């Protein structure tokens, strides 16, 4: 009975990894659709988000069912509750990829991104995709060090986001207000996507160590700083 | 023992109502700070968000503790899991009120909102505040009809949001890009705040009826449309 239970728990983990893969792919394709003004690709991303939502609802139902039938305590309970939150984060990542694709669709056949911002937007899209791929890996491997690395990756996306906004308010900006509005929103979508990916990784740290990231880092630093005599 | 349990469950409900009250007040004050360029008020909103975060973490810990100790099933399990989600929604509302306050602080001593947009922003802020107040009432009273009304309120905020964006892309816009960026972000914050408030109310519908809103509405409509012979 306990074995079937742990199989179900593993299956929930597998679903989270699959969701991370799907939303990463969606954000990659949404970014391409946005930069290339590729309508078919944008439509594909928008339609495919349904699959992520289904996985999310299915995972929720399985997790609640598991709580009811198996009444886990301690670590097992923490895994199930945390999985629910990670699923909600990843579902939201899917929404944000869809939002980027919708901007691409709205501006088609034009591209929403002026050519001088292409590289920054591309970099944000790629970094967002890498972050959620890393989050998927962290779920699969429970690698706390990799999870903690993601804070820096998130700083990198914040830097790109500030760079993007600085273009907008530069007096040489000549792409008009509509484009500024699009870029403001798109920048926000990437930033939120990255936040959710980092949040997933932080939740794995909590799962593994039983401590929230700030506490864990503080405890580790205190241990390292302690006199060794 | 069961009585103490239901008291704890009630206390979780009370905390959610308190969180709704706090974030509603925060959004009201953030809107005033934004429109009046009131730095002290903005700082107050930013500092007060800590209290909401504390309530959220405290509620999470109590809910998980309850799951571990009491191992609820069926409706009781659904209440605890749903409370965790509502708490996450309300915590996010607090973040969004803080974001609005930060825009006010960033532009001080100027106001981020041009005078011709004051009334639209004020209306969005008030509606957002009313939505979360209604969500609090729905949590306290489990009033499904009121919860379902909130879909229309959410449509109203979407309409205001579109109106706000239409000002930005109007060719008569003369407030520059920086203001357009601020307004785009602020509009998005109100919209997301309202989404989370509606989400809270929808979760109450699920709690009371055991069905998600779409299913519940469809089932009700089917029952009403059934021939009465």
Automatic annotation (TrEMBL), chains A, B:
Coiled-coil region(s): none
Annotated compartments: Cytoplasm
The keyword Cytoplasm is assigned to this record: yes
Occurrences of domain PhoU (ranges): 16-103, 121-204
Any Pfam family hit: PhoU
Keyword field: Cytoplasm, Phosphate transport, Transport
GO (cellular component) term, any one: cytoplasm
InterPro entries (UniProt xref): PhoU, PhoU-like_sf, PhoU_dom
GO biological process per UniProt: intracellular phosphate ion homeostasis; negative regulation of phosphate metabolic process; phosphate ion transport
Subunit relationships: Homodimer.
Task of the protein: Plays a role in the regulation of phosphate uptake.
Similarity comment: family membership: Belongs to the PhoU family.
Name by which UniProt lists this protein: Phosphate-specific transport system accessory protein PhoU
Source organism of the structure: Kitasatospora xanthocidica
């Amino acid at each position: 009975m306990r074995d079937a239970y742990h199989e179900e728990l593993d299956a929930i983990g597998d679903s989270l990894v699959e969701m991370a893969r799907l939303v990463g792919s969606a954000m990659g394709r949404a970014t391409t659709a946005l930069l290339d003004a590729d309508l078919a690709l944008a439509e594909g991303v928008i339609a495919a988000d349904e699959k992520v939502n289904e996985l999310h609802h299915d995972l929720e139902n399985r997790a609640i069912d598991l709580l009811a039938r198996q009444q886990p305590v301690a670590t097992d309970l923490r895994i199930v509750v945390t999985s629910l939150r990670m699923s909600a984060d990843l579902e939201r990542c899917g929404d944000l990829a869809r939002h980027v694709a919708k901007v691409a669709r709205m501006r088609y056949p034009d591209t929403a991104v002026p050519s001088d911002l292409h590289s920054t937007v591309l970099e944000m899209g790629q970094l967002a995709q890498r972050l959620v791929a890393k989050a998927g890996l962290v779920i699969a491997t429970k690698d706390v060090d990799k999870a903690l690395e993601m804070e820096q990756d998130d700083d990198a996306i914040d830097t790109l986001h500030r760079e993007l906004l600085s273009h907008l308010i530069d007096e040489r900006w000549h792409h008009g207000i509509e484009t500024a509005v699009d870029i403001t929103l798109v920048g926000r979508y990437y930033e939120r996507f990255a936040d959710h990916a980092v949040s997933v990784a932080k939740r794995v740290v909590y799962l593994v160590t039983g401590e929230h990231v700030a506490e864990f880092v503080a405890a580790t630093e205190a241990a390292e700083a302690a006199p060794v005599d």
